[in-house]
Amino acid sequence: MILPIYLYGHPVLRKETKDIPPDYPHLSLLLDNMYETMYNANGVGLAAPQIGLEDRILVIDLTSCEKDDPSCTGFKKVFINAHIIERDGEEVLMEEGCLSIPNIHEKVPRPNQIRIRYLDENLQPHDEVYEGYKARVIQHEYDHLDGILFTDRIAGIRKQLIRSKLNKIMTGNVSCSYKVKR
Hints:
CATH class: Alpha Beta
Number of domains: 1
Number of strands: 7
Oligomer: single chain
CATH architecture: Alpha-Beta Complex
Strand order of the largest sheet: 2-3-4-5-6
CATH topology: Peptide Deformylase
Shape: globular
Structural class: alpha+beta
């Protein structure tokens, strides 16, 4: 089922999420719905707050990026109760966008490498290191779990320049090709 994506200005996007218990109801259905919602919006990642939930869950599928970055081949993952425990490497500036902040793209600085602990869709634990584009996308989606948006990480002058666009999103004056909620 395709769910509405919550837009910039909705309070759920600013809340810190909580780890889910092992008996979380209908987890596989939720994950399927998150992927379907993400694909419908042409995204590569989606975090639970973006569909109105305060749960520490995110899904990522970078297989559409494999032409540009062969390391993305077959990279489709669920991250449950994720916690980045280390950020390392060179800080890289790269343009990002967000399904919750439609039609805005800005250059965001992020470390090139992370170490993350999480549970997969079968609630099996993992402790892994990612770098490059994978690390960037994970960090972007992970930020949603802590109530942080990519616009919080851009330079001050850029924030001022996009303020009116953000205000339009908050008031519903935005066009999207996918279902949204303000």
